[in-house]
Every structure is written in C-alpha cells, then in structure tokens.
Design brief:
Layout: H1 3-15, E1 20-21, H2 45-49, H3 54-58, E2 62-70, E3 86-95, H4 100-114, E4 122-127, H5 137-144, E5 152-155, H6 157-160, E6 161-162, E7 169-179, E8 182-194, E9 200-213, H7 214-221, H8 246-264, H9 273-288, H10 293-304, H11 313-340, H12 346-356, H13 360-367, H14 376-398, E10 405-406, E11 411-412, H15 415-439, E12 445-450, E13 455-460, H16 467-482, E14 486-493, H17 494-499, E15 513-521, E16 534-540, E17 554-564, E18 567-575
Parallel strand pairs: 1-2, 4-5
Antiparallel strand pairs: 2-3, 3-9, 4-7, 6-7, 7-8, 8-9, 10-11, 12-13, 13-18, 14-15, 15-16, 17-18
Helix pairs in contact: 4-5, 8-9, 8-10, 8-11, 9-11, 10-11, 12-14, 15-16
Length: about 575
C-alpha cells in the first residue's frame, strides 16, 4: 500500500463514519502558547473547551485530518529508525459525540481490516490510575473485546496521561497502540481542563483526540525495516551522496522535508522563533556540503505537492540557496574559532552562535570531545537568558502601560490611540497592495505590528528595495488616500475568499466564514453579491478599519530593514492633514 493509498483509506474510513475532512493547518499555529504545530489537535483546541462550535464551523461534531507537524524535541534522535523533526499525523477528533468504546473499535478495525495487520502483532496500554485520575477501566474493557489481557498493559501517568498542548488546555487519559512494540497511535480522551497550576476541572463536554504516526504506519504497512525505507523517503536517496554516513543522509532527508514546509508556510531564516529553527536546519545541511541539494528539494515538491499544494519550489530554492551562501561566508571563521577553543561550555557555544551563526548541532558535531559536556538544555538556557534581557529592554522602551486594544498586531492605550491605530491599520493594507503592485505578487505578509506611533510591516522579498521603489510604494499609498476610496466589509466562506484570490496572512487560522475588507472605487453592490470593478486592496481581516481612505492622512515610509534571508521590514507613519 503506497503512502498515497494509506492517506486516502484513512480519510475515507472516517468520512464514512460521519467525520468532516479538514485540511492541514500551517506549521505556524494561531496558538501563541506554542512555536510550531506539533500535533493534529492544535487547530481544534477551542472546540474541546467549548470556545468554538464545531457544528457551526464544520457542520459536524467529528472531524478527520492529516496534519503537518514539527517537533524540535526529537532533533537529536533524528537518524535512528523512527525519529523525525518534520512528520505527518493522521488524526480523527470528536467534540462531544462518541467516546472510548467507538474509538477503540475503529482503531482495531483500521489496523486489522483496512491496514491488514495481524491481530497478534497488536498491543495497547491504558492508564493505571493515580490520586488525581482513576484507572481507565472503560478503555481496558473495550480493548479486552479484541486483545488478550497479556497484551493490554497498565501504564503510568508519564505515558498514559496526555497533557495540554501548551501551558494549559484540555487533557485526559490516553491509550497507546503498538504494532510489534512500536507505537503507532495515541488515543487521547479529553475529560479535563488542566490549568497552569496543574489543577483539573471537568470539561463541559468529553472529546476524543487520536493521532497516528504516518511515517511509522507506512513503515509497518509497507513491510520496511525503518521509516527511511518507505516511499515517503525513497525518491530522495538517489540525490544524496553515498560518501555520507547513513545517519547523515537520514538527517538531510528529514531536515529537507521540514525546511520545505516551513518556507512554504512563510517562515524565513532569522535568529528568533520559527525563523531560528529554519536557520538551524539549513545550516546543518551546509556543513555536509551536498553538491546537488536543489535536486533533493525538487524531489520533495514532486513527491508531496499532490497532497500539500502549498509547497512552493521557487521560494524553497531561493531561500535555501541565499541562506547557504550567506552562511558559507561566516562559517569558516566560526569553525576556525571553534578549533582554537580547548573546551566549549554553554557560554562559548552561545558566543559561536551569536557571532558566527553556528547552531548547537554543528558545535556538537564539529566540536566532538571539546563539546563533550555541552547539553542542549544548557545552550537553550543561555539563549533564553539573552532573550529575557532583550525582552526586558523592549518592555522598558514600550512603557509597560495598560492597553485598551491588544490583538497582538494592533496596540492602543486610549480611545485617541485607537483612532490612530485604525487609520494605520487600513494604511497597512494599502502598503501591502502597493508593495505587490511595485515588486510583484511574490510579496507576502510575514507579520505586522501597529501602535499609535507607527506601523511595522514584515514581508517576503529577497533584496533591499531601491530608493525609487520605496518612493513608488509610498506614492501609490498616498494616491489611494487621495482618491478617497471607500473601505467595505463583506462576509463570505473561507473557501470562496481563497478561490477569489483574496490576500490572507499565512500564520492565521481562519474560521469557515470570514470578513473580507476591500478598498477601492465601488461600482457594484457588495451586499447583493456583485463584484467591485476597481479595487486597490482586498484582504481577509477582522478589522478595525476606517470607512474611507481620506481619513488616513499623509503616509510616509520612515525606513526599511533586513530581517533575514528573503525577509524585510518597512516602518511607516501617517500624519493627518
């Protein structure tokens, strides 16, 4: 069974059982408590807590998905038989409908009837119970319908209680499912809300969160010895030189898959957050000097774009090659410095990272005995200390006052500031439209931050803008202001908005019904479903916005800045005249 057939059979199985098929969300989650999407349930957290209504959003209480996921916790284990940083999760989820009995029955049916795995190869664990959560007898009894008692083990809290995806959130008892003692699925039964202090309160409705390790399942179904022998990786091996050790080739294959999805989801190399993860992966590849690395990425796009059409080969190759080029200019100086050191502790490792861009993995691999006692925890603590110092400086600069509005993107401390922020918010929409008109459609939003004093807009572009280009952009925004364009909002389905080419921010997780803000000369009635004929800007957005561009005032770009490979920032203001 090919990986493509495996995906289809899984989704068809749950679609026939009343599940709505939901596409994978971005690797950049809309949940601020986590850096990257690490599990299929992250996009559904609010449905377990009752904050959102699955019937309203999906038309069903049950959903199924195949989710791109990324975990840095496994980065040091990559290259063994079963660990990856980038991986896919097959998942099915219920928000107040079925529970343990049905979930376990379907799990066994999938394994034996659909995936044709012999029953004697299957085993499971259930929670043994403790002072907070009792023994999971309901799961044990359900498994006993299919498995003998010796293949149903009772596990501890560490293995069979699933905590929240973040500092707080839904949690509950979990079953682990094994084939030949390799874990292939986790069945989580959401019954409690776990607060930051670890106290538990019952959820308003019980939920089911099931995640299958796709690569491991493919390995078992295809009869392979390890995940790297499956058809998910096979197309890559002919492009990786045999001079490299087997583990090294596996690391490259894993990292290349992760790099491809991170870049296609809009991440660009930088020294913080997701950009830092991406930079680490690319620079680790640089040390191995793979001559035809472009061919590896092209093979990934060819192999995966049928299921993940967002994979952008042009962006992947451009960002990777630019980062490799920049890194190679400094890496040798960093390696020379590393060679001169007798012993590398966390402080020196951070110096090598900050001054020369050498990530932890390279320092450990190249340093060998010099870095023998360097641990990732110590390195991360040093990095965290540096960030705390930087953050404290930023908070002091901002003033630390209470905010009337703080959406993450928009910040205002008073009604007067709210008016200024609203004008700048609409101006930022005009700015993105103007950038695309001057520089081309490759420009995509990568973030924004708006206060009463200024707007800051981050976007994808691979070089510094010329003075002439900046002036053209500024003049275009002011032209739109001078035309006194109306700003109108129309609600429509997310799918309809995307099909019509409406701009949207890659990091956002949008509901099924969205708001589309259009700026232009309207010669049609939007409320009647007719399309405008002279539109300057159209974006998915939650507001707030001015009613007419004449309210914005004179738009002025104050500066542009580089943020990393293929990523730039513009700062601008708007003065009422």
């Amino acid at each position: 069974m090919s990986s493509g057939e495996l995906r289809n059979k899984f989704l068809e199985f749950f679609e026939k059982r009343g599940h709505k098929i939901v596409p994978s969300s971005s690797l950049i989650p809309d949940d601020p408590s986590v850096l990257l999407t690490t599990a299929g349930m992250q996009q559904f957290k609010k449905y377990y807590t009752g904050e959102a209504d699955p019937i309203k959003d999906f038309g069903a209480q049950n959903v199924a998905s195949i989710q791109k996921s990324f975990r840095t916790s496994d980065i040091d284990e990559v290259g063994d038989e079963s660990h990856l940083t980038f991986f896919e999760m097959l998942g099915h989820f219920s928000f107040g409908d079925y529970f343990k009995k049905e979930t376990i029955e379907w799990t066994y049916e999938l394994l034996t009837d659909v995936f044709r795995i012999a029953p004697e190869r299957i085993s499971a664990t259930v929670f043994a119970g403790d002072e907070k959560i009792p023994f999971d007898k309901e799961s044990y009894d359900a498994w006993a319908e299919f498995l003998p008692s010796e293949r149903i083990r009772k596990g501890s809290r560490a293995d069979n209680i699933w905590g929240p995806a973040g500092p707080e959130g839904p949690c509950g008892a979990a079953n682990e499912v094994y084939v030949d003692n390799l874990e292939v699925a986790t069945l989580v039964f959401m019954e409690y809300f776990c607060a930051k202090d670890q106290s538990l309160t019952p959820l308003p409705q019980k939920g089911v969160d099931v995640g299958w390790g796709f690569e491991r399942l493919a390995m078992i179904v295809q009869g392979k010895k390890n995940i790297f022998e499956t058809d998910l990786f096979e197309p890559l091996w002919r492009f990786l030189p045999t001079r490299l050790a087997e583990k090294t080739r596996r690391v490259i294959a894993d990292h290349a898959r992760g790099i491809s999805s991170l870049i296609s989801d809009g991440v660009r190399p930088s020294n913080k957050e997701a950009g830092y993860i991406l930079r680490r992966l690319i620079r680790r590849l640089a040390v191995y000097k793979v001559e035809n690395i472009d061919s590896v990425f092209k093979a990934i796009v060819e192999n995966y774009s049928g299921f993940y059409p967002e994979l952008d080969q042009g962006a992947i190759l451009s960002v990777v090659n630019l980062e490799l080029e920049k890194f190679n200019e400094t890496v040798y100086r960093g390696l020379e410095k590393l060679e001169k050191l007798e012993k590398i502790d966390a402080g020196l490792a951070f110096m090598l990272y900050e001054s020369y861009g050498l990530p932890y993995e390279i320092i450990k691999e190249i340093g060998q005995t010099k870095a023998e006692y360097l641990t990732r925890d110590d390195f991360d603590k040093e990095l965290g200390l540096h960030r705390e110092i930087s953050r404290a400086g930023a908070e002091k600069k901002f003033g630390g006052h209470g905010l009337l509005l703080d959406t993450g993107e928009l910040k205002a401390a008073s009604e007067e500031e709210l008016k200024k922020v609203t004008r700048l918010h609409t101006a930022t929409h005009l700015l993105q439209a103007a950038l695309r008109k001057v520089l081309g459609d490759g420009v995509r939003q990568a973030g924004s931050d708006i206060t009463a004093e200024r707007t800051r807009f981050d976007f994808t572009f691979d070089r510094k803008l010329t003075d002439e280009e900046l002036k053209k952009v500024e003049n275009l925004v002011n032209w739109a202001v001078s035309r006194k364009f109306d700003v109108r909002m129309q609600e429509m389905s997310y799918e309809e908005a995307v099909r019509s080419g409406v701009l949207h921010f890659f990091k956002e997780k949008y509901p099924p019904t969205v708001k589309v803000y259009s700026v232009g000369d309207f010669k049609a009635d939007l409320s009647a479903g007719e399309g405008p004929t002279d539109i300057f800007s159209r974006e998915l957005c939650g507001g707030p916005h001015v009613k007419n561009t004449s309210e914005i005032g004179r738009f002025k770009i104050s500066k542009q800045e580089p943020l990393g490979s293929g990523l730039r920032r513009i700062r601008a203001t708007a003065i009422q005249i």
